[in-house]
Amino acid sequence: MRVGVLRRTVVLTIMIGTTLVGASVADAARYIVVFNGKSVPASAEKAIAKAGGTLVYSYDRIGVAIADSDDPGFLARLDGRKGVTAVAPSGDDDFDDSEVSNPSEPRMGRLPNEPATDNDPFSSRQWNLRQIGAVDAHALTGGSPSVLVGHLDSGVDYTHPDLQHNVDLENSASCVGGVPNQSADSTGRLPFFDTNGHGTFTAGEIVADDNGVGIVGVAPNVRLASVKVTSVDARDGKTKIFPESAICGLMWAATHGFDVMNASLAIDRTELNVPAARVGYFCRSNPEDAVVIAAVRRATRYALRRGVSLVASAGNSNFDLTSPPAGEDCIRMPGGLPGVIAVSAVGPVLADGSAQRKTFSSNYGLGAIDLTAPGGDQFELAPATAGLVFSTLPTSLAASGYGFMGGSTSAAAPHVTGVAALVISMFGDDSPGNGRMKPSTLRAILEESATELACPPNPYIRPTVAPAICEGTDELNGFYGHGEVNALAALGG
Q: Residue 372 class from Cβ within 10 Å (0-12 exposed, 13-18 middle, 19+ buried)?
């Protein structure tokens, strides 16, 4: 039987956590091992050791392990060992989202809710919140502190004055290297602190506090748990999200009571000098890619079954995701996996009142896009910043603590996550732990309440990018999915 192992030849420094099984090996390659069944066998550590490796971390609930080895014969010796496979069991990895509990008429929940206002100093710059009805929705609720939003990104500046009240440090972690870590460094800084800026920006869109400072997020009263998954690849100096980090983050969400999680990212390939058409894409016909897809899919499905709704950005290459240049058997993860809500990006309503347009670089595809949301577009309004999304930045990178982002599905997905948090706050179950609302029920509410957007005339041509073709109807099309997320309508307003 073929071994289910992905090899990455790169040196990684692992922050050792209390649940670490074995130490990482200096100058070692990292492997993802996918086992038959849905658990890691008790013999796994011994089998990996016999093959010349070290078990670094074990995700027993999904049958995936992380291993290190500096032995060039490790892969060959592990190949064919009993219980190890390259493919997850057939028919058991598709998330079934068919069970919907009367999504058109959700019952009012019993979670504590308070309204929010939008009178912070920079609220006037937040056209994006007004466009999705979030300002009106805040009169009903700013969210519930009982709701925990997960944030799979580059971390967060948890000292930021607009974020510090809402970041849940106890449930935050770094998953860099595939091993969860909450230990502070010698300076006292926690390992999920954001030094990149991307994560702090997306976090602010979701939960920036209604506190008279800066901006207000879509769901300013909920809590946010940061899960850092990005790291700088020492080989080329680029910031990446490797598969083991994403698996760790999904499992952390599933086991720490997250209600919904935002992933404004795609998992990166591990080799260097990847052609632009293949960046962020994994192909089922490639044996090593198949291992990654199986492992991430198991983790995604486990999170969904534990009640974690997953929202992901669709990507910024102006690609048709149903037929990407990488190949029709290739997908972006997690957005391309079953059960995950994939979000495209639109710009603002134009000055003449005409409808929003697909952001110039946003990916698209009929059946691949579920919803759309504001991602900003510098080509639409003057001055250019008028069409961009404004949010929080680490004060170490921007003295003001705020800045703009535009033309990005990374900026779009947090709007959907924020509205999801408002819906769960209003209609979710008050039982502890995961599962305050079924992911399938939440998805149905968001899709049914979305504002329909019709396809623009084809071909759709924007500055700097190739023409794109929009297929489908007003109710469901490849550019906007079911439409633009609508916070007020989702709450029944």
A: buried
404, 258 Cβ separation under 8 angstroms: no
CA angle (402, 407, 411) in 5-degree steps: 55
Can you give the pTM of this predicted structure?
0.91
Name the pairing type of β-strands 389-392 and 402-405.
antiparallel
Distance CA 312, CA 335 (A): 5
Would you list the DSSP string of 46-67? HHHHHTT-EEEEEETTTTEEEE
The DSSP string of 204-247 is: HHHH--SSSSS---SSTTSEEEEEE--EE-TTT--EE--HHHHH
Sign of CA dihedral 59, 62, 66, 71: positive
> Which residues on neighbouring strands pair with residue 5, listed in sequence order?
33
- Residue 98's pLDDT is 44
The tens digit of pLDDT for each residue in 108-142 reads 888 999 999 999 999 999 999 999 999 999 999 99
Q: What stretches of 352-456 adopt beta strand conformation (E)?
A: 371-374, 389-392, 402-405
Buried b (16+ CB within 10 A) or exposed e, 173-208: bbbbbbbbbbeeeeeeebbbbbbbbbbbbbbbbbbb
User: Which of 43-47, 256-260, 371-375 is the least confident region?
Assistant: 43-47
C-alpha dihedral, 462 to 468 to 472 to 478, nearest 10°: -90
Alpha-carbon torsion, ordered 459, 460, 461, 466, to 10 deg: -80
| Statement: residue 364 has pLDDT above 50 | yes
Residue type, 336: G
Q: Which of 83, 3, 74 is nearest to 43 (CA)?
A: 83
**Which amino acid is residue 151, in one-letter code?**
H
Tell me which amino acid residue 371 is: L
User: What pLDDT does 94 receive?
Assistant: 44
**Per-residue confidence band for 1, with pLDDT thresholds at 50, 70 and 90:** very low
Q: What pLDDT was estimated at residue 4?
A: 57
Dig out the tokens for 206 from the structure: 């979701």
CB 388 within 8 A of CB 405: yes
Q: How far apart are CA 103 and CA 340, in angstroms?
A: 18
Question: 263-277 as b/e, with b when 16 or more CB fall inside 10 Å?
Answer: bbbbbbbbeeeeeee
Q: What is the mean pLDDT of the chain?
A: 89
Closest Cα to residue 478, out of 284, 322, 289? 322
- pLDDT (tens digit per residue) in 399-443: 999 999 988 999 999 999 999 999 999 999 876 656 799 999 999
SS3 309: strand
Report yes or no: 54 and 30 within 8 Å, Cβ to Cβ. no
Structure tokens at 352: 């003449």
Closest CA to 221 of 421, 420, 489: 421
Going by the DSSP 8-state scheme, the letter that residue 477 receives in this structure is B
